[in-house]
Amino acid sequence: xxxxxxxxxxxxxxxxxxxxxxxxxxxxxxxxxxxxxxxxxxxxxxxxxxxxxxxxxxxxxxxxxxxxxxxxxxxxxxxxxxxxxxxxxxxxxxxxxxxxx
Length: 101
Prior knowledge:
By secondary structure, the chain is of the alpha+beta class. It has one domain: Thiol Ester Dehydrase, Chain A (Roll). The protein is built from one helix and five strands. It has one helix at residues 28-42; strands spanning 5-8, 51-56, 66-73, 78-85, 88-96. The chain has a five-stranded antiparallel sheet, covered by helices on one side. The protein is elongated.
C-alpha cells in the first residue's frame, strides 16, 4: 500500500458545466486521470501506457471535495487503486501493464 495522494477538482473546472446541470459531479475521466498520474509518480520508469482492467464508481464526487487515492501493488504488472471522499469509496479498480515485447 502506498502513501495516499490527495487532490480536488475545483468548482470552476471546465469539465463541470453540463455534468450535470443542477447537481454537478466530477466526471469519472478526471478521477481516472488522477489515478494514472498517481501511478506514474509511483513508478516513473514505466514506458508502456497503463491498461484499465476494471473500474467501479460506487458514489459521485462533488466539485471541490478532497479525494484520496490509495495504490496497492497486486503483482509485477498490476496495481489496484481505491479513491475515497470523506471516508466513502467513490472509485476502485485495477491497472495493468503489458509485458514488454
